[in-house]
Amino acid sequence: xxxxxxxxxxxxxxxxxxxxxxxxxxxxxxxxxxxxxxxxxxxxxxxxxxxxxxxxxxxxxxxxxxxxxxxxxxxxxxxxxxxxxxxxxxxxxxxxxxxxxxxxxxxxxxxxxxxxxxxxxxxxxxxxxxxxxxxxxxxxxxxxxxxxxxxxxxxxxxxxxxxxxxxxxxxxxxxxxxxxxxxxxxxxxxxxxxxxxxxxxxxxxxxxxxxxxxxxxxxxxxxxxxxxxxxxxxxxxxxxxxxxxxxxxxxxxxxxxxxxxxxxxxxxxxxxxxxxxxxxxxxxxxxxxxxxxxxxxxxxxxxxxxxxxxxxxxxxxxxxxxxxxxxxxxxxxxxxxxxxxxxxxxxxxxxxxxxxxxxxxxx
Length: 363
Ligand SMILES: [Zn+2]
Fold this sequence. Notes:
Elements: H1 2-5, E1 18-21, E2 24-28, H2 36-53, E3 61-67, E4 73-78, E5 81-86, H3 94-106, H4 116-137, H5 143-158, H6 167-172, H7 178-202, H8 209-221, H9 228-239, H10 244-252, E6 267-275, H11 285-288, H12 299-303, E7 311-312, H13 316-320, E8 327-334, E9 337-344, E10 349-357
Parallel strand pairs: 2-3, 3-5
Antiparallel strand pairs: 1-2, 4-5, 6-10, 7-8, 8-9
The structure holds zinc ion.
């Protein structure tokens, strides 16, 4: 059954429509609307970087690009491959495209065993974490792009309208509510970043979270089953104090916050009050552009939106970046006329950690 879920069929003439570079190959039927040469080159470098970091030898790896008519891109990882869907007429910017491919690559190596709510935070959190920190360390991602991604993730985590959910509750909504869906990703990422800082602090910079992850990859490939308690044991072997309370705080309940030095001493952190993006309609509206579940007297209702009408609004990552006092502009078409409806972000706010490059002062 698992094999069937990982099976993809691509029908058509692929003789000209592929690119091979060492063990890597990229395949497409519809021209994907991106520079496949530079996409594949970046993929190759990132693949080498990751297989080296995770202590896993390189092997044949295939990327399949397919066309879809929607906004943005989505991707799913399978053994030795990933499939990425994108809209050739509205290609993603290079930065977002790279984040997605780096995230999918991590899935080739990093897994835990156990039920979904016990492992998804690690699988998706480590993919979000390493897709940012490894390219940063290798100079493939500059500090500004790294910080932008980390700070958006912090907002998605700590100002999420679903932030009060436990990881088990979030897992139950994983496929039906995109806000709950993001929680295991972002909580897992900030837990790993925080753990890396604790390990470095306690071992005078000798042990990193990479070392633990490499051990997991090695022992799982030798047939060992490693679940959440096995993970905690591995951390405790180095830190000599119970790990479950940290996991509970940062992942299971999400009540904790990562430490200031979670991403290294070159960054400093401050807590910023940011809007909780809750506009008085069902959160699916933000993805589908089709108003659902309008809350009477809620922000959208007060601004004049109607249930079940089609709207045009910024992509969710842009909405998450908005600050208190900003205004969300929504385009509505009614009877051939289009109007702009503005919703001021004056609702609930939450304190969220945001990092910036540390300014070195000389005295
Ligand atoms: Zn993923």
